[in-house]
Amino acid sequence: MLLHVLLNLCALAWTATAAPCDEWRLQRDASTLLAARVDMELGGVAAGKRDDVGFQYLKPAEALLAAQAIAHEDFNQAAAQVQRILQYQKPDGLLPHLIYGPSVPSNWRWIPSNRTFHPGPAFWQQKMTEHEGSELSSSLNTSTISAPPVAADVAWEIFRLAPYDSAMGVRTTAVQFLCHVYQPLKKLQKYMFSTRRGGAPGSLLAVHVSRSYGITVSCTVYLLNGGRCSG
């Protein structure tokens, strides 16, 4: 999604080649684009309008990075989005890579649109029966694979972008934000290291999303620390 935003901004820049680069204008256009894509029902920045992307959904990893961008101008809005996104975390600590909006029927196994390759909620509901303790922390349908682990880095960067309280010269609100997200982030880290531990010390395994969709790929499992692929 962020790549798509950058491409849109580049396209705008190419249309104005005669004019010098205006950093303020680029920042304004980026802020406008992010604001236009906030899904109020899901609580974060979505990939785009439903008609453009095929269905209503939120990708937590992308939405978290978008919140980090928003924090440059509005810390409170960014912090609120991060806390809302972390509410989609499962009881075992997993943060799903895909959240379906309430407008997506639960019985769809595949999305009837040529604008997306994502499967529907029923695809994951079938897989959910293979796991114990499938208690849901949210009433919305989600995928059963985890989002890329960017949440902790995003939370820290947003904390660093928080303004100082004028009276005390400290970041009281920012510290409160870290206190709110600490337990969800701790659960996420425990989940990752209990289910994704690799062969080398300190390494984690990741399963490529396309493998989970049932698509054959030449290399689906890799070590995040640069290990060799297998699968």
Explained architecture:
The chain is mostly helical and 231 residues long. Helix content is 44%, strand content 6%. It contains 9 helices and 6 strands; from the N terminus they run ααββαβααβαααβαβ. The strands form 3 sheets. A two-stranded antiparallel ribbon has the order 1-2. A two-stranded antiparallel sheet has the order 3-4. Strands 5-6 form a two-stranded antiparallel ribbon. A hairpin with a 4-residue loop joins strand 1 (38-39) and strand 2 (44-45). Helix 1 (2-14) packs across helix 2 (23-36), helix 4 runs parallel beside helix 7 and helix 5 (75-86) runs parallel beside helix 8. Residues 1-18 form the signal peptide. InterPro entries: 6-hairpin_glycosidase_sf, 6hp_glycosidase-like_sf, MGH1-like_GH. Pfam families: MGH1-like_GH.
Q: Report the structural category.
A: mainly alpha
Instruction: State which percent range the strand residues make up.
Output: 5-15%
Largest sheet: 2 strands, antiparallel
Low-confidence stretches: 129-136, 214-231
Helix content: 40-55%
